[in-house]
Amino acid sequence: MRRLALIAALALLVAAPVARADGDPASDYLLxxxxxxxxxxxxxxxxxxxLDATVAEAKAHGYxxxxxxxxxxxxxxxxxxxxxxxxxxxxxLGQELFFVYxxxxxxxxxxxxxxxxxxxxxxxEQKAIDGIPAPxxxxxALAAAATTAVSRLAANSGAVFPVPKLGxxxxxxxxxxxxxxxxxxxxxxxxxxxxxxxxxxxRTSS
Length: 206
Prior knowledge:
Layout: H1 2-21, H2 25-30, E1 35-36, H3 45-60, E2 65-69, H4 86-97, E3 104-109, E4 112-117, E5 120-121, H5 123-126, H6 139-156, H7 166-205
Parallel strand pairs: 1-2, 2-3
Antiparallel strand pairs: 3-4, 4-5
């Protein structure tokens, strides 16, 4: 009985953040991914790749942050009451993620940008991005503003690095994808070859 009670309690702990995230798409993604880029907001792949690369580069230099691009009211799921209020949503989303992720969070909306940490607004870091103009509804502008913000926030904490260029990021990302696919195919072929060799050996022995 004690073991069953423990299993049930652990299941509730695991399910709790997921249940809170049901009405909020960004929190579902950001539980395990560094960026949330809605597919229907018209963000060009090159800009999305640049943002991802910038977030990864910042982390490599010791500055970790997760980013939510919120281009439309639809991107907020059932939390539309916070549209378009980036600071209120950054606070809310940070609390949604708190049990899994307690780090920095950047929210970018057409009306502006906001940063929180551990489920609370971070006014000290907010100053570093207050000068970035509201990006408006353009998907490219949303992603570009996020990339600039991540770079400034990282630099504000002493993590200085060149922002990856659009073209080089897109091509390098494509090359990595191709290498990954080739690697998977090679592993699959080796596994198949090993299986066939083993099968032939069994037939010979029998």
